[in-house]
C-alpha cells in the first residue's frame, strides 16, 4: 500500500496559539519593535517620557492646596519635602478661582451666572442633538435675550422690547417673502426691527418700568472678566458667525456684481488684517464713527468685530465645501423647480456644511482661544488679564505656572469637547455608504 | 441590425400624438463665449410625441434639451414651453421647470436624503403638497419603477440602474407634462441598461411627451415617433424611425449610422 490512503483515528483538540502571536506580545512586536527604526523610536519615546515625568512629577506631587500666600506654600513644601524641593502652589487657584471664572462680577449676584450657564446647556441641547423634541428650539431662540438680561441686569423691559423687534422682523419676513423674495423681505424685516430697536425700545422700557418695575441690579461691562468674558464673546461670536459666514460664502458665488464685490472685499479685508488691529478698531476708532454722545458698550463692540473676523474664515471654509459639491446637485435642484433659497437650504447647504464640519469646528476652536486677545483693549481675559491681576497681589507675587496651567486646562476641556462633538456629528451624518 | 428590438413588446395603444404644441423652438442660437454651439434650431414638439435625439458627441444635443428647462441659457431665438416663453424672468423659469421633468446621465440624486425624501422634496416645497400625500404619490411611483422596498435607503446603497429608476420616479412625482432624458443609460453597466429602458418604454406607453438624448437605437426604433440627428450644433435630419434607419438622406447621417450600427 502507498501513503495516499489515510484515515484519522483520533481528532485533535484545539491548542493555544504561540505566545509570540497573541495579545500584548503580538501587539508590541507589530507596533513598537517591528524594525530597527521603530525600535529606536520606541526607546527614544520612552526616554523622553521618563525625562518629562522625573522633571514634572515631583513638582505636581509636592503641590499645596491649603495656603494663603506663596510664601506659605513655599514654607509648607520645604517642611514636607526638604529645603531643595519645588512644588506647585495650587492654593492660588483655590483662593482666587472665582476671579478666573467670573472676573469682578459681584459675589452676591453669582447665582445669575450659574443660571445663565445652566441655561446655555439647555439652549444648546436641541441644536446639538436632533433626537430631542423640535419645540425646544423656541427656548433656544429666546435664550440670548434671557442670558443678556441675567448677565447685565437692568429692567426686563429692554430685552422684551428687543424681542418685540425680532417678532416684528419675523412677521414682516414671513408676510413679504412669498411676494418680494427672500433677500428683499429679509432686508425690510431688518430695517423695521432696527427702527423699533433704535426709537421704540427706549421709551417702551421706561414706560413699562414706571407701570411695572421688574429689574435685576445692573452689572456694568467693566465687571466682566475671566471665563465669563471668554464665554460671552466666544459663544456669541460662534453662534452669529456661522449664518454670517454662510451668507458671505454665498455672496462670494453670487452672479450679482455688487453682492459679490462686497463679500469678496469683506472676506479678504478681514482675513488680511490681524485680529488685534480689529480689536483696536473696536476700542478706539469705532467711537469716532458713531454720532457724538452715543455710548456703545466695549464688550458689544468687541463681540461684533470678533464675529466678523470669524465669519470671514468660516465663509472660506464653507466655500471649500461648496466647491466639493458636483454641479449635478445644483442642476437637479434647478430642474425640479426649487428656487435659489430652497435649493441652498434643502440641497446645497446640508451637504456643503457636512463636508465643512472639521474646518468650521477648527475655526470655532481658534475663535474661542482668540478671545484671550481682548486683553489688549483693556478687558480682563482669563489668561493674561486675570492672571496679571491675581499675580499683582503681594501674597501671590512670583507664582508663574499655576494660573496658566489652570486656564489652559479649562480651555482644553471646552475645545476638546467641541472637537469630540464634531467627530460625533461627522459619524452621524455619514451617508455615502461606499 | 445588432441592437435589441423591443417592437413586439411595446403597446402603442396610448401613444397618441395630439395637435397641441408642447414645445416650440424657433431660430434658437447659443454660444459658449465665441463658440457657436447651437445654430438656428427650429423644432416643434406636439403633446404625446416621443423624440429621440442622436448625434456624435459634441454635436449640441445635450445642450439643446438643457435649453428647454433653462439649465442652459440661449442667446437668440425663442423657446416656448407649455405656453410659457423662457426669458430671464425667474418666476417663468421655475414654472417651466416644475412642468418639465429631467433625468440626467449621472442620476444626480441627493445623497444626504433617503429615496423617499428625494421623491417628496420637490412636491412638498414647490407644489406645496401635504407631506402625507407626497409620500403616497412617491410610493406609487416607486412601485411603478419596481423598487418600493428601497424607499428608506440612501442613494449610495442602490445600484446604478436602481438609482436611475429612482431619478425617473423623482421627476414623475412632480406630475410633469414633458420629460427630458439626457443620456440616461450612458453611465450604466450593460445589464442595468435594460431595466432603465423598460421603465422609459412604460412611460412612453402611457403617452408621456418625451425628448430623449440617447445612443440606444433599439429604443429609438421601438418607441420614438421621430428621430432627430444633430451634428455641429445643427439639426441635420429628422424622420420617423423606420425611414431614418433604413433610408437616411444626408451623408452625415449615413456616416453616423454606419459607425454606430455597423460593427
UniProtKB/TrEMBL annotation, chain A:
InterPro entries: AA_ABC_transptr_permease_3TM, ArtM/GltK/GlnP/TcyL/YhdX-like, MetI-like, MetI-like_sf. It is a multi-pass membrane protein. GO terms for biological process: amino acid transport. Belongs to the binding-protein-dependent transport system permease family. HisMQ subfamily. The chain crosses the membrane at residues 37-61, 110-129, 136-152, 158-177, 184-204, 224-250, 262-286, 298-318, 355-380, 400-418. PROSITE patterns: ABC_TM1. Keywords: Cell membrane, Membrane, Transmembrane, Transmembrane helix, Transport. The keyword Thylakoid does not apply. CDD domains: TM_PBP2. It is found in: Cell inner membrane; Cell membrane. The keyword Cell membrane applies. Residues 227-422 form the ABC transmembrane type-1 domain. GO terms for molecular function: transmembrane transporter activity. One of its GO terms (cellular component) is ATP-binding cassette (ABC) transporter complex. It comes from the Bacteria. This is L-glutamine ABC transporter membrane protein /L-glutamate ABC transporter membrane protein /L-aspartate ABC transporter membrane protein /L-asparagine ABC transporter membrane protein. Its main location: membrane. Pfam families: BPD_transp_1 (PF00528). It comes from Rhodobacter viridis.
From TrEMBL, chain B:
InterPro entries: AAA+_ATPase, ABC_ATPase_HisP-typ, ABC_transporter-like_ATP-bd, ABC_transporter-like_CS, MetN_ABC_transporter-like, P-loop_NTPase. Signal peptide: none annotated. Keywords: ATP-binding, Nucleotide-binding, Transport. GO terms for molecular function: ABC-type amino acid transporter activity; ATP binding; ATP hydrolysis activity. Gene3D superfamilies: P-loop containing nucleotide triphosphate hydrolases (3.40.50.300). It comes from the Bacteria. Pfam families: ABC_tran. Residues 23-257 form the ABC transporter domain. PANTHER family: AMINO ACID IMPORT ATP-BINDING PROTEIN, PHOSPHONATES IMPORT ATP-BINDING PROTEIN PHNC. Belongs to the ABC transporter superfamily. This is L-glutamine ABC transporter ATP-binding protein /L-glutamate ABC transporter ATP-binding protein /L-aspartate ABC transporter ATP-binding protein /L-asparagine ABC transporter ATP-binding protein. It comes from Rhodobacter viridis.
Amino acid at each position: 500500500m502507498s501513503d495516499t490512503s489515510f484515515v484519522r483515528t483520533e481528532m485533535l483538540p484545539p491548542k493555544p496559539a504561540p505566545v509570540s502571536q497573541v495579545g500584548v506580545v503580538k501587539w508590541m512586536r507589530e507596533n513598537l519593535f517591528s524594525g530597527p527604526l521603530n525600535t529606536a523610536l520606541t526607546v527614544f519615546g520612552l526616554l523622553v517620557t521618563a525625562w518629562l515625568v522625573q522633571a514634572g512629577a515631583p513638582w505636581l506631587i509636592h503641590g499645596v492646596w491649603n495656603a494663603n500666600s506663596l510664601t506659605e506654600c513655599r514654607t509648607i513644601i520645604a517642611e514636607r519635602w526638604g529645603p531643595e524641593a519645588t512644588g506647585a502652589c495650587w492654593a492660588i487657584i483655590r483662593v482666587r478661582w472665582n476671579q478666573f471664572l467670573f472676573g469682578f462680577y459681584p459675589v452676591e449676584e453669582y447665582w445669575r451666572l450659574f443660571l445663565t450657564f445652566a441655561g446655555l446647556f439647555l439652549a444648546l441641547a436641541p441644536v446639538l442633538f436632533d433626537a430631542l423634541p423640535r419645540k425646544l428650539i423656541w427656548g433656544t431662540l429666546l435664550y440670548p435675550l434671557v442670558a443678556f438680561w441675567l448677565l447685565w441686569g437692568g429692567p426686563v423691559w429692554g430685552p422684551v422690547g428687543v424681542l418685540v423687534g425680532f417678532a416684528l422682523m419675523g412677521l414682516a419676513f414671513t408676510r413679504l417673502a412669498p411676494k418680494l423674495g427672500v433677500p428683499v423681505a429679509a432686508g425690510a424685516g431688518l430695517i423695521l426691527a432696527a427702527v423699533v430697536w433704535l426709537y421704540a425700545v427706549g421709551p417702551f422700557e421706561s414706560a413699562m418700568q414706571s407701570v411695572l418695575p421688574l429689574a435685576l441690579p445692573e452689572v456694568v461691562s467693566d465687571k466682566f472678566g475671566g471665563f465669563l468674558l471668554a464665554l460671552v464673546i466666544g459663544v456669541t461670536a460662534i453662534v452669529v458667525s456661522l449664518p454670517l459666514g454662510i451668507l458671505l460664502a454665498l455672496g462670494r458665488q453670487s452672479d450679482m456684481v455688487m453682492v459679490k464685490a462686497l463679500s469678496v472685499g469683506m472676506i479678504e479685508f478681514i482675513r488680511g488684517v490681524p485680529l488685534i488691529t480689529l480689536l483696536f478698531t473696536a476700542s478706539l476708532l469705532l467711537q469716532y464713527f458713531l454720532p457724538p454722545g452715543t455710548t456703545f458698550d466695549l464688550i458689544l463692540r468687541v463681540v461684533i468685530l470678533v464675529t466678523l473676523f470669524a465669519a470671514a474664515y468660516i465663509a472660506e471654509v464653507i466655500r471649500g465645501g461648496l466647491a466639493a459639491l458636483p454641479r449635478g446637485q445644483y442642476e437637479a435642484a434647478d430642474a425640479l423647480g426649487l428656487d435659489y433659497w430652497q435649493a441652498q437650504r434643502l440641497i446645497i447647504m446640508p451637504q456643503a456644511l457636512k463636508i465643512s464640519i472639521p474646518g468650521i469646528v477648527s475655526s470655532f476652536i481658534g475663535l474661542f482661544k482668540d478671545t484671550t486677545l481682548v486683553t489688549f483693549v483693556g478687558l480682563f481675559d482669563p489668561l493674561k488679564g486675570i492672571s496679571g491681576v491675581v499675580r499683582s497681589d503681594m501674597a501671590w507675587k512670583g507664582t508663574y505656572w499655576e494660573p496658566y496651567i489652570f486656564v489652559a486646562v479649562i480651555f482644553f476641556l471646552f475645545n476638546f469637547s467641541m472637537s469630540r462633538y464634531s467627530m460625533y456629528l461627522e459619524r452621524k451624518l455619514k451617508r455615502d455608504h461606499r | 441590425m445588432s441592437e435589441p428590438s423591443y417592437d413586439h413588446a411595446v403597446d402603442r395603444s396610448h401613444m397618441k400624438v395630439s395637435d397641441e404644441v408642447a414645445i416650440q423652438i424657433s431660430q434658437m442660437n447659443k454660444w459658449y463665449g465665441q463658440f457657436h454651439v447651437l445654430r438656428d434650431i427650429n423644432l416643434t414638439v406636439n403633446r404625446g410625441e416621443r423624440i429621440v435625439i442622436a448625434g456624435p458627441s459634441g454635436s449640441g444635443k445635450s445642450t439643446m434639451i438643457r435649453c428647454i428647462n433653462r439649465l442652459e441659457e440661449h442667446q437668440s431665438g425663442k423657446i416656448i414651453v407649455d405656453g410659457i416663453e423662457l426669458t430671464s424672468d425667474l418666476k417663468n423659469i421655475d414654472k417651466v421647470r416644475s412642468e418639465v421633468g429631467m433625468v440626467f446621465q449621472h442620476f444626480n440624486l441627493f445623497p444626504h436624503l433617503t429615496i423617499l425624501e428625494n421623491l417628496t422634496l420637490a412636491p412638498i416645497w414647490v407644489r406645496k403638497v401635504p407631506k402625507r400625500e407626497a409620500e403616497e404619490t412617491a410610493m406609487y411611483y416607486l412601485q411603478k419603477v419596481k423598487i418600493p422596498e428601497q424607499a428608506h435607503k440612501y442613494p449610495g446603497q442602490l445600484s446604478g440602474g436602481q438609482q436611475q429608476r429612482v431619478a425617473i420616479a423623482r421627476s414623475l412625482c412632480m406630475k410633469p407634462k414633458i420629460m427630458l432624458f439626457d443620456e440616461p443609460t450612458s453611465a450604466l453597466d450593460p445589464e442595468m441598461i435594460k431595466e432603465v429602458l423598460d421603465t422609459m418604454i412604460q412611460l412612453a406607453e402611457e403617452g408621456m411627451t418625451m425628448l430623449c438624448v440617447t445612443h440606444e437605437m433599439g429604443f429609438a426604433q421601438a418607441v420614438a415617433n421621430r428621430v432627430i440627428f444633430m451634428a455641429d450644433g445643427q439639426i441635420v435630419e429628422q424622420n420617423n424611425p423606420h425611414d431614418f434607419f433604413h433610408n437616411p438622406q444626408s451623408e452625415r447621417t449615413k456616416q453616423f449610422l454606419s459607425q454606430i450600427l455597423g460593427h
